[in-house]
Amino acid sequence: MTRSGGSDIRSAILQEARKVLVEQGYRSLSMRPLASAVGCTATSIYLYFKNKDALIHALIDEGMGMLHQHLTAALAVADNAAGANGTDNFVDAAERMRLLASAYFDFGLANPEYYEVMFMLHPKFMERYPAEMFRRARRNLELFARQLHEGEGMLPEDRHAQGAQVWSSLHGAVSLLIANRVDIRIPAEKLRELAIDQAVSVAAAHPQSN
Amino acid sequence: MTRSGGSDIRSAILQEARKVLVEQGYRSLSMRPLASAVGCTATSIYLYFKNKDALIHALIDEGMGMLHQHLTAALAVADNAAGANGTDNFVDAAERMRLLASAYFDFGLANPEYYEVMFMLHPKFMERYPAEMFRRARRNLELFARQLHEGEGMLPEDRHAQGAQVWSSLHGAVSLLIANRVDIRIPAEKLRELAIDQAVSVAAAHPQSN
Amino acid sequence: MTRSGGSDIRSAILQEARKVLVEQGYRSLSMRPLASAVGCTATSIYLYFKNKDALIHALIDEGMGMLHQHLTAALAVADNAAGANGTDNFVDAAERMRLLASAYFDFGLANPEYYEVMFMLHPKFMERYPAEMFRRARRNLELFARQLHEGEGMLPEDRHAQGAQVWSSLHGAVSLLIANRVDIRIPAEKLRELAIDQAVSVAAAHPQSN
Amino acid sequence: MTRSGGSDIRSAILQEARKVLVEQGYRSLSMRPLASAVGCTATSIYLYFKNKDALIHALIDEGMGMLHQHLTAALAVADNAAGANGTDNFVDAAERMRLLASAYFDFGLANPEYYEVMFMLHPKFMERYPAEMFRRARRNLELFARQLHEGEGMLPEDRHAQGAQVWSSLHGAVSLLIANRVDIRIPAEKLRELAIDQAVSVAAAHPQSN
DNA sequence: CATGAATGAGCTTTCATTCAT
DNA sequence: CATGAATGAAAGCTCATTCAT
């Protein structure tokens, strides 16, 4: 997913940027400190990335790739389990959604700064996001729609909307937790449980075959 | 240019700050451009706000006040309607939540500039958020918990968590719509409907007497 | 010595300025914090002092007055002691210089920030010092010359020079101690002793009748 | 305008800073005017100095180096003279101190800009003065102690104190002359003579073998 | 006598970026 | 491929001072 074959320096820059991003946040990611952390000059970064935007975009892209792996890995677990015993589809759909939602939630909380740069940046910034990366990012969200069945009164176009709703609901909880906006009297664990249960309930209401 | 009256410079500053904030993001909100947009000097801003933090905090506080009015007004409508006809409690609780959720959703989309600064700013800011303002902000979120009944297997402490979950779910949809992060093939109206329905379904599962 | 009959506020300003000066140093003496410490507006200060320069000048003048009192009081002690028993002049002159030098030294170390503003400010600043105040300041230094005898090969004009040298020598020690420029292995007390001894030795070499 | 060669911009900055410092005082030494006097941008200064402190410290360090050369050169002259004829130690010690004191005095008056920044800056700066530079600075002052003999009632630890006293006495005269604080009726030459004589008399009272 | 409001100039420092080599 | 040098713009903030009331 990450463009390979590039130079070592490019990877080193991304890696260090990631580290700074995670440790100090998006605001502290500036070119010269980054360069000196990598061990090259600030000018060198521009050999590999057109500008800071491009660097961040690459970082987001990378994050989206990681999230995709994380989510598909979770679904693979579900598939294996389903394959092993002959679990019926109803349980299967709910369980798949539970695994997917849990994976999404946990990725966000485990990589808050990644999550921030991936999903909480100002829209102005995303306007410049390359279409090709955008497409890669969208795959993650489509996983949610794919867990929902189109049968029983659910129109095909509704499936996407419903998927988006499930995702947006999870995103609400994750982003508020990351931003420290949730009342401290409410344990993150409890909110996680409720948010995931809700995602599951949507999937359960609309069982899916595969 | 010449502003008359008490301290509408303060308001003008807030208003302009809000505008810049939603159009360009927080990083672009800087004192001198803000000042010149308002029509005063950068120094003057410091007559009305101790520093940039205080300015942002005032903006949040103002927004929280407006939201509170908006939400309580919506609930008042529900109360009146319930008083008129003798609707039973079940319908009542669901309907109240529908009104509350709708009001919240619509406030967000109608005042994206406020919403962004209120709920989508970097956590770093909230660390310095004054306790007194924090209390005012919390009132809004408690309205959600208050619509949920503590009966039938719902523990009192769960009520707060469940309220937070309903809120966070709505927040997810609102914030993603504001940030233009939702797939353009999904109409905002549809996502709104789904998000509100879900909030209602939580309330309906836990009917409340008042 | 300090202009009296003025308003209470003028005194309050000077008093507070002095306090800030002593506690935080010359650099931290700025008009608005000063005003708010006094309990008036920054504008009000300008009713009593033409500008910041004038305020500082008044402070210096005040300090010079204090120093003068301090020094003459020390000499008065010497006079009384000399009047009581019939001490001869030689001892008298040396003892008077010891008291004078000690008093000068101690004033400096006891009021370092005063001393700084009185004697260690940039010359540029003193260019604007009013002549009338300058004359008052000079009286302090003349006290040193006055302890030196004009006899025995000392020309009258040399007396002033010698007085200035004694003073400058003391000033060297005081100012370096204040500025923390003296090696920490050398106790201030020891340097004081040596500096005062030296001043005394100059006076002893040139006995004076009164 | 276009400067060639290695890093004479660094020197140009130091030189200009020195000039501003003596003409206008520390408070007037600000980065942008300094830069434009040098002929570069304010940002460029930060390529050569970490910050304003480091710039000042470099200035002090440079001055201390110059002073050290000046003083040791003067002592070398004394050594040569002593080697030529078989002057006895008493005269030698006194003469050495006279040369040292004269050299110190003349350095101060010849390089007021250096002297001011070296010895007359606010103590706040010295707090941040790097230890390594501090050691270099101390060598200058130790030269004074080294001219004083540890015999005849002078304890070894007193030698340092006595050296400091000689230095502080000279410093008093130099700094007051530089700061224009000495009564204009007293010729600088006269004060110089008296101050140096006094330094010599201390050394003469405590003859030294080497 | 006193003030609230306002200002212009200034501060140190950091930023992303470019260009000649 | 890589660099050192340099830059313009901008940041948040404080300063002494003025003016109309």
Instruction: Catalogue the unreliable spans of chain A.
Output: 1-5
Radius of gyration of chain A: 19 Å
Let me know the number of strands of chain A: 0
Biggest interface goes to: A-B, 43 and 46 residues
The top-level CATH class of the largest domain in chain A is: Mainly Alpha
Percent helix range of chain A = over 70%
- Biggest sheet record of chain A: none
CATH superfamily of the largest domain in chain A: Tetracycline Repressor, domain 2
Number of helices of chain A: 10
Number of domains of chain A: 2
**CATH fold descriptor of the largest domain in chain A:** Tetracycline Repressor, domain 2
**How widely separated are the two ends of chain A?**
25 Å
Derived from helix and strand composition plus strand pairing, the structural class of chain A reads mainly alpha
Q: What's the SSE pattern of chain A?
A: HHHHHHHHHH
Oligomer: homotetramer
- In one word, what is the shape of chain A? elongated
Name given to the CATH architecture of the largest domain in chain A: Orthogonal Bundle
